[in-house]
Amino acid sequence: MRDAAKEEGFECNINAYSLEEMNNYGPDADVILLGPQVRYNLKKVSDAFPDKPVAVIDMTLYGMMKGKEVLDNAKKLMGC
């Protein structure tokens, strides 16, 4: 995702955190993406941040490391 953002000239910060850290970093996020391995936490995270888009990264895109497609999805969630 970082490489795709850089290639597009899309200025953003992309970081990964554990679920235990969501209360520390979630409030500053524009969008929250969950890895497919923790998709069962979608409702918990959505409930914790009702004013933010929260989604699970598509398992195929995640597994194939398709950062551009994941970035495109994140941008759509943010309305970009």
Describe the structure in your own words:
By secondary structure, this protein is mainly alpha-helical. 44% of the residues lie in helices and 8% in strands. The chain is built from 5 helices and 2 strands. It has a two-stranded parallel sheet with strand order 1-2. The longest helix is centred in the C-terminal third of the chain and has 12 residues, at 67-78. The model has no long low-confidence stretch (mean pLDDT 95).
In short:
With 80 residues, this protein is mainly alpha-helical. The chain is 44% helix and 8% strand.
Mean pLDDT: 95
Shape: globular
Q: Roughly how much helix do the residues carry, as a percent range?
A: 40-55%
The total beta strand count reads 2
Estimated radius of gyration: 12 Å
Structural class of the secondary elements? mainly alpha
Strand portion: 5-15%
User: What is the rounded distance between the termini?
Assistant: 15 Å
Number of helices: 5
Low-pLDDT regions: none
Tags for this model:
two-stranded parallel sheet, 44% helix, 2 strands, mainly alpha
Structural topology:
Elements: H1 2-8, H2 22-25, E1 32-34, H3 42-48, E2 54-56, H4 59-63, H5 67-78
Parallel strand pairs: 1-2
